[in-house]
Design brief:
The protein is α/β, with parallel strands linked by helices and 173 residues long. Helices cover 21% and strands 29% of the residues. It has 3 helices and 9 strands; from the N terminus they run βαβαβββαββββ. It has a 6-stranded mixed beta sheet with strand order 4-3-2-5-6-7. A 3-stranded antiparallel beta sheet has the order 1-9-8. Helix 2 links the parallel strand 2 and strand 3. Helix 1 crosses helix 2. The longest helix is centred in the N-terminal third of the chain and has 16 residues. It is globular, with a radius of gyration of 15 Å. The two termini are 17 Å apart. It binds 1-O-pyrophosphono-5-O-phosphono-alpha-D-ribofuranose (PRP). 1-O-pyrophosphono-5-O-phosphono-alpha-D-ribofuranose binds next to strand 2, strand 5 and helix 3.
């Protein structure tokens, strides 16, 4: 089994802190719109919105995936979503991990073209050692070294996504 990096309890506590910080970014009567990146972001989104103490709306996008490869093809594209008019909305991108930054950069460009009122980004995991492009990230759950992390939505060849904790495995060869 994967070696534990963050327990379910540590993740739960950090997600509540992130939700509390996020709430201060919007007017009190606003309904922010959360856009999560599939597949990895599904569990983080579910916990994050349940920790929000105000109405929110949600949506999902799918980008071209790395699939079973561990390195990026270099130019991620959106292949599904968003399905909502973002104009003047306070939009929050929800990502499980920012690695090279290429996925987030492409998604931000796409969403900004829809002219949202604001665009924030919250990522659960940040691997700054792997960054290839500079991209704004407003809130980070945990900064981690360059290890192959699975669980809590993240996979290794589609395995381990359902683990309630974050763990480390040897990278696939
Ligand atoms: C992962 C992760 C991010 C992206 C980050 O997705 O969920 O979307 O890579 O990498 P980057 O910063 O180098 O662009 P992946 O393609 O593995 O798809 P998945 O979420 O379906 O596992």
């Amino acid at each position: 089994m994967p070696r534990t990096l963050y327990t379910a309890e540590q993740i739960r506590a950090r997600v509540v802190e992130l939700a509390t910080s996020l709430a201060t970014r919007f007017p009190a009567d606003d309904t922010p719109h959360f856009v999560a990146v599939l597949n990895g972001g599904f569990m983080f989104l579910a916990d994050l919105v349940r920790a929000m103490t105000r109405p929110v709306t949600i949506d999902f996008v799918r980008m071209t995936s790395y699939g079973s490869a561990t390195t990026t093809s270099g130019s991620p594209r959106i292949v599904h979503g968003p399905g909502t008019d973002l104009r003047d909305r306070h939009v929050v991108i929800v990502e499980d991990i920012v690695d090279t930054g290429l996925t987030l950069q492409a998604l931000r460009r796409h969403l900004l073209a829809a002219r949202p009122g604001s665009l924030s980004t919250v990522v659960l995991l940040d691997k700054p050692g792997r960054r290839r492009v500079t991209v704004p990230v407003d809130l980070v759950g945990f900064r981690i070294p360059d290890e192959f992390v699975v669980g809590y939505g993240l996979d290794c060849d589609e395995a381990h996504r359902n683990l309630p904790y974050l763990g480390v495995v040897a990278p696939p060869s």
